[in-house]
Q: What sequence folds into this?
């Protein structure tokens, strides 16, 4: 069964993203929200996600608020797509 | 048929109510006979260390309550092998019978359950 | 589809507002929100006593409005609430506390309600942290 991992902490001050990447299955996705969107602009952090053809998403309002330009591997989405995304995976695991 | 739930406990035992509230969620699910497993990850593995003295910081004994998990039907307990190793903890000396899993084992654990909650 | 939402962050946390926005989006798409469950610091998102400046959003107030408008089952974990000083009239009387700050439509209940929602919903989505 596939999992959508939901993150909201900055990867630079917090270990949640690192732990999430270790536990990521081949069919899983990662949704960056809040300060976790800072990970989207860092190619080094997101490389493992790209390598395994995992799906990487970021919430548009958080990207926009922070003036970021996420890498090409990141799909920037709004809330309606966020809702649909939670249904596209079998379950959602939030790293609160 | 009931959905199975994996509860991932990531908080160290004496840094606030997080560890206890993750445990409470497991005990509540167990009380309803739900299929539950618990994984201790990151600083959550510190909950498994024996001979702790929480009374020194006027806290209740979380370890004693963790021991109650099998009584509530939650006997699938796991710990992240890497988290243990990073913190210098020997899986053989844990106060709780948690099975140490490597990353691949953890991935399978997550994939296997219908629900995952990380606290 | 049926959703359940769990909130672990207080009203001033972006996570609480994000959960609210997610709830609005799923309802707008015609999905059902079978329960909202507030746990850990999320109990503060149900406080009646949050005061926000005129030029700031009132997330706690917006949660109350959303829950009332849509008749959503809105539950606050009693153990987490008591620990954090979020009490309804009944609990304030029981524990002889000077004030109640948990208004309607919020109900205090146990974690069994979260588990029930997780079992019944197609998706449980949790919001917490930042």
A:
């Amino acid at each position: 069964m596939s999992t959508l991992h939901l993150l909201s902490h900055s990867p630079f001050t917090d270990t949640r993203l690192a732990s999430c990447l270790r536990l990521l299955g081949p069919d899983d996705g990662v949704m960056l929200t809040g300060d976790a969107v800072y990970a989207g602009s860092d190619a080094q952090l997101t490389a493992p996600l790209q390598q395994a053809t995992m799906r990487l998403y970021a919430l548009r309002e958080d990207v926009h608020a922070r003036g970021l330009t996420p890498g090409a591997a990141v799909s920037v989405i709004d809330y309606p797509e966020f809702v649909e995304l939670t249904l596209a995976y079998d379950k959602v695991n939030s790293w609160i | 048929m009931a959905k199975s739930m994996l509860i991932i406990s990531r908080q160290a035992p004496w840094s606030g109510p997080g560890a206890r509230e993750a445990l409470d969620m497991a005990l509540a699910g167990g009380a309803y006979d739900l299929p539950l497993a618990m994984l201790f990850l990151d600083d959550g593995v510190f909950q498994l260390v024996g001979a702790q003295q929480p009374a020194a910081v006027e806290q209740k004994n979380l370890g004693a309550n963790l021991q109650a998990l099998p009584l509530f039907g939650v006997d699938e307990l796991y710990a992240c092998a890497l988290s243990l190793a990073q913190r210098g903890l020997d899986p053989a000396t844990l106060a709780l019978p948690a099975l140490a899993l490597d990353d691949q084992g953890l991935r399978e654990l997550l994939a296997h359950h219908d629900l995952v909650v990380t606290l | 589809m049926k959703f359940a939402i769990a909130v672990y962050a207080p009203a001033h946390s972006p996570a609480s507002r994000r959960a609210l926005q997610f709830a609005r989006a799923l309802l707008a798409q015609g999905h059902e929100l079978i329960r909202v469950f507030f746990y850990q610091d999320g109990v503060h998102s149900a406080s009646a006593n949050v005061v926000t400046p005129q030029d700031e959003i009132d997330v706690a107030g917006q949660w109350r409005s959303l829950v009332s408008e849509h008749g959503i089952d809105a539950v606050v974990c009693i153990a987490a609430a008591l620990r954090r000083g979020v009490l309804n009239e009944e609990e304030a009387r029981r524990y002889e506390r000077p004030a109640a700050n948990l208004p309607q439509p919020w109900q205090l209940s146990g974690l069994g309600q979260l588990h029930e929602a997780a079992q019944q919903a197609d998706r449980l989505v949790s919001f917490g942290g930042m």
The mean pLDDT of chain A is 90. The CA atoms of residues 18 and 75 of chain A lie 20 Å apart. The longest helix of chain A spans residues 79-88.
